[in-house]
Task: structure prediction
Amino acid sequence: MSTTAKTVEDTAGAPEGAGTLLAVNNIEVIYDHVILVLKGVSLEVPKGGVVAILGANGAGKTTTLKAISNLLHAERGEVTKGSIIYNGDKIESLSPNELVKRGVVQVMEGRHCFEHLTIEENLMTGAFTRSDGNAAINESLEKVYNYFPRLRERRTSQAGYTSGGEQQMCAIGRALMSNPKMILLDEPSMGLAPQLVEEIFEIVSQLNKREGVSILLAEQNTNIALRYAEYGYILENGRVVMDGPASSLRENEDVKEFYLGISTAGRKSFRDVKHYRRRKRWLG
Amino acid sequence: MMFFLETVISGLMAGVMYSLVALGFVLIFKASGVFNFAQGVFALFAGLALYDFISMDGWFYELFGFALPVWLGIIATMGVMVIVAWLVELLVLRHLVNQEPIILFMSTIGLAYFLEGLGDILFGSDVKPLDVGLPSGASDYLLDNYNFYVEKLEVVAALIAAALVIVLAIFFQKTRIGRALRAVADDHQAALSVGISLRMIWVVVWSVSGFVALVAGIMWGSKSGVQFSLSLIALKALPVLILGGFTSVPGAIIGGLIIGVGEKVAEIYAGPFIGGAIENWFAYMLALAFLLVRPQGLFGEKIIERV
Result:
């Protein structure tokens, strides 16, 4: 175990180059005025980049995304410290409606399609904030159908009766309808078969390349997230414990051990691992 | 036979009046998942405000020395209802986002009592005969030629209800705002996440139901005067909703008609056997039976559950 969390951070640094689209600076999030969930999270997303937030259940991935899209407010959470800068502007106090207009849209964990609306109506609700006319909106609809041909087949079905994969596609397509510059994608792999997960990630990656949409992805499935993302942040207990380019995270011994389930040193007792992890956290 | 028909027709007409109130419930329930207990009081409040605008013994006359013509009074009352909707959003709903439906429901009970009290303070509690120029009395034509008794007012109410339903159906199914309303009804959070402004939607939907309440207030007010028992018709709307389904506009209409006719027919034909007064509880019994057999109502949306 030669590489520690610290050295990865030191050598890699945040991604530079194309310019930063989103910068989250040391934010703290408190729910209900008492529950401290994020204890100083910082991250950056470059223009046109794909960045992943990784971590276990309850690490604070979803909260981080919701802090950015400001869906926190409806859950009685608030950002109490730090700042979120998007495109040069502070956005912590903007409403989700305003944020979607500016091009930041979240695809929530667990799909959240409008069950009683048809797939097409679902997609059309995504265009709610747009004011650039029906022609442009229909063009977007056509684009979404091209990315997700399955949705075209199911366009008249009620969303509640479509499969999990179709609902995930519908949720992503709906977000696309708002013409976003940045999609916050929360756990797209949840509850889907591995093959479907692969299919959805492939489409997301196409969207990023062809439409230039920046993507901030929260995933538990570290393996697939690190294959498609360029840069990753690992969250634990509301803090970023490690970050770096995806390629170096993939090679990192700790990440392999804790998140990818690959170990070079053979099987270890869980007690050792736990102890090691605890010590690691103290040192990190 | 003639008598039976007359009974049915008068039942239908009474049903239309129930439907008008039930409609307001459906609208708010669809868009915000809130069962608005205050809907009946909304109708009362609208009736009171309208009476105040167009009569000689209201505040408005005292302040300005003249009363508004009926059409202007209706527009002004609509303005009042929009303000009420806006205030409800500002003072109540905004603070209860993402709370349990039961909490929202209880807040509307509070709202009902508040508005009732406010109406009492502002406009007084006496019965006010509302006259907006709707025809009244029996239809002479039908009475003379067919010896058939139908209230003109009830025919007008039926026509207006029909028009209202058509307009609302188009609004919900075809327009951008209507689609957003249905989206909000399905999933608040998701609606927020795609940038639908809940506040705007709520103000819109409470205003629309305020408008429906105004129509109901005018009809009931013309029929039996604007009085505080009007707020109790909300209770009659409840079985209508259970029958028709809480989320269906046509359901509210059909449910109202079934209850109206059922009541009248039961009262007249079954009443004598058990000593009458069936009209008062018939609707609730019917609703109870429906809850056992078809809880989502005739036209309610089925609860979709993926397994």
Notes: Chain B touches chain A at residues 97-98, 176, 179-180, 182-183, 185-197, 301, 304, 306 (CB under 8 Å). The mean pLDDT of chain B is 86. Chain B has one domain: 2-222+229-293. Residues 2-222+229-293 of chain B form a domain with the ABC transporter involved in vitamin B12 uptake, BtuC fold (CATH 1.10.3470).
